[in-house]
Amino acid sequence: MPDPTLHCPACGTELAPNLLACPTCRRLIHSDRLKALADTATRATSPIDALVAWREALELLPPGTRQYDTIQAKITDLGQVVDTLPSPPPAAEKSNGKGVGKAAGLGAIGLILWKFNAFVLLALTKGKVLLLGLTKASTFTSMMLSFGVYWTMFGWPLALGLVISIYIHEMGHVVTLMRYGVKASAPMFIPGLGAIVRLQQSLGDPRQDARCGLAGPWWGLGAALGSYLLNLATGLPIFLAIAHLGAFINLFNLLPFASLDGGRAFRSMSTNQRWLAVLGLGAIMSLCEGQEASGLLALLMIGGVLTALTGKAPKTADSPGLMAYLGLVAILTLICERLVPMPPA
Ligand SMILES: [Zn+2]
Ligand SMILES: [Zn+2]
After folding, report:
1. Which ligand has the nearest atom to the CA of 215?
2. Ligand 1 midpoint to CA 55 (Å)
3. How far, in Å, CA of 282 to CA of 159, rounded?
4. What spacing in Å lies between the alpha carbon of 66 and ligand 1's midpoint?
5. What spacing in Å lies between the alpha carbon of 33 and ligand 2's midpoint?
6. Which of 3, 55, 65, 296 is least crowded, fewest Cβ atoms below 10 Å from its Cβ?
7. CA–centroid distance, residue 286 to ligand 2 (Å)
């Protein structure tokens, strides 16, 4: 038996499935759910919970309506609130608060120990978050497949380092998306090409999209530096190779093109800022000595020029976004240029 046809409770018009508003009287189909979500969002004690509710509400509203624009504005405002929240997890914060008095009493050594303690705590909590994605079977299987493919290309040690670096990069996206209350999939590896995190909702705000985009290369940079530290500690050249390759891949992801991380970063910049970014890329390229990094930077510049000329730019500038983009490119280029493993003699 077929489902009874839906009719608008206000005017009785027959409704096709997936409609968000009645075509005759414009009544919102999901008005009850929308009321409940608005209620949840206004009662929410954390901006992240409010964002989760407003994002779900946005999906139930037809774009272009007044309600849609109002909620989109709320999402933008709440994103700015989230940006001002301290980034260390609550556990680390608590220890900071207690540590201040103690550190003051112990002097410089105490302060260093306390900082170190806070750092270890942060690493442990972030470490737990890092393992989160691995509980998904799809992530784990696709990761193993990728590992197999890279193994045949580079041998297992570099393949393993590469897969872990990519995973950390992707978890940077996942953690930041969670912070903005966006539903997203766990990372999926595409053998030979990298990995992706699929969004189940739109971010609805170019700045938040840019922050989520740049979080991948930031975490990827952390992975490259971590590998470099392992090289210093063990003297094993493989860690230098992992740091170098990781930095190169993260730099590639900053290409201002389509849905690559760099493309997302550029979309929040005004047209003038895009030209500034191109100038900044040129300045970094002029300091390059090797062909590998300067070749990639030339590509980034071409992408930047194209985006500045043709892309639709927001009216408002995003200075933190521009600074973060250029800062990342500069540090990753430096790693690419300086941390080159010696070829075996
Ligand atoms: Zn109707
Ligand atoms: Zn990414």
Report:
1. 2
2. 25
3. 32
4. 18
5. 34
6. 3
7. 26
Mean pLDDT of the region 211-220: 94
CA dihedral in degrees (150, 156, 159, 163; nearest 10)?
A: 110
> pLDDT tens, 242-289?
999 999 999 999 999 888 999 999 999 999 999 999 999 999 999 888
Task: Please state the length of the chain.
Answer: 345
- Its pTM surpasses 0.85: no
Q: What is the mean pLDDT of the chain?
A: 83
Return the ligand number nearest the Cα of 25: 1
Answer for the pair 293, 333: CB distance below 8 angstroms, yes or no: yes
Ligand 1: distance of its center to the CA of 13 in Å?
5
Ligand closest to the CA atom of residue 22: 1
User: What is the Cα–Cα distance from 9 to 29, expressed in whole angstroms?
Assistant: 9
Contacts of 79 (CB under 8 A, 6+ apart): 51, 180, 205, 207, 208
What's the CA gap between 102 and 71, in Å, rounded? 46
> Which residues does residue 190 pair with via DSSP β-bridges, in sequence order?
194
